[in-house]
Amino acid sequence: MRRDVFQAIADPTRREIINMLAHHPMNVNAVAENFAVSRTAIYKHIKMLIECGLVVVTQFGRERYLEARLESLDEVSAWVEQYRKIWTDRFFNFENYLDELETKKRKTGKRK
């Protein structure tokens, strides 16, 4: 079952794992050492990241190295971007409204 990338980034532990692997590949044990939870819990997080396509595993001898594949985050970026435009427009409209209020305030202040 392929998981949704939004499920992967919903958890702060998984986001931290992605952040760590974005800088350089690490073996599974090195990742697990950075968290105060069981290795089993970290393995479950890693499994979900693999299922979402955000992490790939490469075997080198006995070691399994994890590497981030951040292209999958493009889906998240595209989703956020649609709302960025809406909020940018709202802030622009709000700023214009405040400017209009300030202009009216100055005009009524000058009449007195």
TrEMBL record:
Coiled coil: none annotated. This is Winged helix-turn-helix transcriptional regulator. InterPro entries: ArsR-like_HTH, HTH_ArsR_DNA-bd_dom, WH-like_DNA-bd_sf, WH_DNA-bd_sf. Pfam families: HTH_5. GO terms for molecular function: DNA-binding transcription factor activity. It comes from the Bacteria. Residues 1-88 form the HTH arsR-type domain. CDD domains: HTH_ARSR.
